[in-house]
């Protein structure tokens, strides 16, 4: 176990709805990254948070947004859900500078 | 051109054999390289990382890096059925603090 916890583990939404996913990072880690993993694909970088600020962003539209809290936990928000947003959403924590990611078990989102 | 490319496989090897997994990357500015293992339905877990050209060994695993060829590989010696999983190559680019993952290579170790 990595000590990174995510919730919820599974959820089903309909197109147009909004979703919030949550992540608690491993103790001692100050950086949180979010990834989207579609079936049969590798994880795709969404964004990274360090010291409560976005510190890097992948090729995802603005309807994907996030937060990091003072305790280093984080949220991923997705607005106006589309069918293609169906995927496993992975949170990874790390200590800035080490480059090693420790993943949570993921939140599997299904959009109908 | 994808940032990180891997042969998706599937790769099958008999138990006890050496499994060789390969990865190429496009950005010469990439500085650190990682191998993750992902069991079906689970999240990726870090196996090894390598920063310098050459080989790095950890138990049955050896990572090899050739920056001139932009090539990273992972060798698994004495392969076990429990090694059956998808292996993801990841590259860290300092710009934007982004990790780029390949699509993964599916490995099956046959008892």
Attribute tags:
heterodimer; A: 7-stranded mixed β-sheet; 4-stranded antiparallel β-sheet; 11 strands; 0% helix; B: mainly beta; 57% strand
Tell me the Rg of chain A in angstroms. 13 Å
- What fraction, in percent, of the residue positions of chain B are helical? under 10%
Q: Residue-averaged pLDDT of chain A, rounded?
A: 92
Biggest interchain interface, per-side counts: A-B, 25 and 21 residues
Strand runs of chain B, count: 11
Q: What percentage of residues of chain A falls in helices of 4 or more residues?
A: under 10%
Q: What is the percentage of strand-forming residues of chain B?
A: over 45%
Distance N to C terminus of chain B: 37 Å
Count of extended strands of chain A:
11
What is the arithmetic mean of pLDDT of chain B?
A: 92
- Rg estimate of chain B, integer Å: 13 Å
What general form of chain B does the structure show?
globular
Count the helices of chain A. How many?
Answer: 0
Write the layout of secondary structure elements.
The complex is a heterodimer of chains A (112) and B (111).
Chain A: E1 5-7, E2 10-13, E3 19-24, E4 31-37, E5 44-50, E6 53-57, E7 64-68, E8 74-78, E9 87-94, E10 102-103, E11 107-111
Chain B: E1 4-6, E2 11-14, E3 19-25, E4 32-38, E5 45-50, E6 54-58, E7 61-66, E8 71-76, E9 85-93, E10 98-101, E11 105-110
Parallel strand pairs in B: 2-11
Antiparallel strand pairs in B: 1-3, 3-8, 4-5, 4-9, 6-7, 7-8, 9-10, 9-11
Structural write-up:
The complex is a heterodimer of chains A (112) and B (111). Chain A is mainly beta and 112 residues long. Chain A is 0% helix and 51% strand. Chain A contains no helices and eleven strands. In chain A, the strands form two sheets. In chain A, strands 2, 4, 5, 6, 9, 10 and 11 form a seven-stranded mixed beta sheet that branches. Chain A has a four-stranded antiparallel beta sheet with strand order 1-3-8-7, with no helix packed on it. In chain A, a hairpin with a 5-residue loop joins strand 7 (64-68) and strand 8. The radius of gyration of chain A is 13 Å and the shape is globular. Chain B has 111 residues and is an all-beta fold. Chain B has strands at 4-6, 11-14, 19-25, 32-38, 45-50, 54-58, 61-66, 71-76, 85-93, 98-101, 105-110. In chain B, strands 2, 4, 5, 9, 10 and 11 form a six-stranded mixed beta sheet that branches. In chain B, strand 9 (85-93) and strand 10 (98-101) form a beta hairpin. Chain B is globular, with a radius of gyration of 13 Å. Chain B starts with a strand and ends with a strand. The A-B interface holds A 2, 31, 33, 35, 40-45, 48, 50, 55-58, 90, 99-106 and B 4, 32, 34, 42-46, 49, 88, 90, 92, 96-104.
